[in-house]
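Notes to self after the Tuesday call (sharing in case useful).
The group wants a holo model before anyone commits to mutagenesis around the pocket. I volunteered. Ligand is fe (ii) ion. Logging inputs and output together so the record is complete.
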Amino acid sequence: MTSTHHLGEQGTSRLRSHVAGELERTRRRSAALTDAVDEADLVRQHSPLMSPLVWDLAHIGSQEEIWLVRDVGGIPAIRPDIDDLYDAFQHKRCDRPQLPLLGPAEARGYVRTVREKVLDVLDRTPLEGRRLVERAFAFGMIVQHEQQHDETMLATHQLRDGPPALVEEPTPAAPADAAALPLEVAVPGGPFVMGTSTEPWALDNERPAHEVFVDDFLIDTTPVTNGRFLEFVDAGGYDDPRWWSAAGWAYRQRADLRAPRFWRRDGDRWLRRRFGHVEPVPPDEPVVHVSFHEAEAFAAWAGKRLPTEQEWEKAARFDPRSGRSRRYPWGDEDPGPEHANLGQRHLRPAPAGAYPAGAAPCGARQLIGDVWEWTATDFLPYPGFAAFPYREYSEVFFGPEHKVLRGGSFGTDASACRGTFRNWDFPIRRQIFAGVRCARTPAPDEIG
Ligand SMILES: [Fe+2]
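Result:
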């Protein structure tokens, strides 16, 4: 794939400083997540669902070495002996603490050495002419990879026992109009362009752009709140198989689910544990830590359903005035703090209705940031999909065992979140920062 538009010398140096800035910003986040706890804590497994934090750190360095030092840079391997230890396909998370992993000091030294070499590689690599480096793609892929592991490490922090270790800024209050927002907004039927062929750092599974016809639908204006989810709990929703799929009900029985993960009943109220704080469940905040099965059961109880992935992306990107799909709900500009709750600035979702400046043309809010939103759709390739740069990025995960999540959470970085970005996970997953937004098909006389 060659580009017809050349960067030029100035364009190249601007792109190089952008990449260097993103690498640096991302590394500060990884350092904050791993410096927040002591060495014993770094090597401990806080949950069989997760790796020790020190595994994630060295794995970040290992992927950066493999792609940017060896492949892009053509430099001999620094630590070929550890490739296998940090290959996520070789060892399940629950087995990783038993491996002869690099210790905290060694892991920190290793990622530093890799990064020094990568900055040299960045300085001398033309950022066009070869698809892997076109518009700095491989660097962007590595930035996103590190940010994704930072979100995973954030989930490990949430699973960790003990006092709060992370700092955060207070979350914004809901705007004055939040209470008056319509519960749902309508998206009229018609075609729209889904996916992208132009976003330079988009990953293979977001490509290519293709037209999709979507029928009329209604979608919730905001993610489902704790208060609303509590109505489902109080109505006995967890005990009524009518609302659950067969697989969902089997899981609910097996895992003895009664409420979102990290909730605990305390007399007549519910408390939740959030990064070491125990606090009453805030009713106005989007519910988080629910599996696909719980999201689906809630939607059925509410007389609705989960949106398909196509519906979600159309609600988030389609601008009926121009007929175009935007990069983000609010337009084409990169996310700013006024648009969305992203990047671990806050360690919780913002109240439902927050971020009016981030609203989509259809009126839906908080599609980007706050909580990942489960969709009804299996993770599958788009028509014309081609694996790049390797099959293990997405292709090996395609199939009905994974459901698509959209929109990112408060723990997702802006660089790893776009209107086209697709996340996927098992339908039983609860430790991720996932919530619910419902949709429904209108009755025949509802949309004019
Ligand atoms: Fe990874």
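Two things stood out.
Residues 8-35 form the longest helix (28 residues).
The first strand starts at residue 184 and ends at 187.
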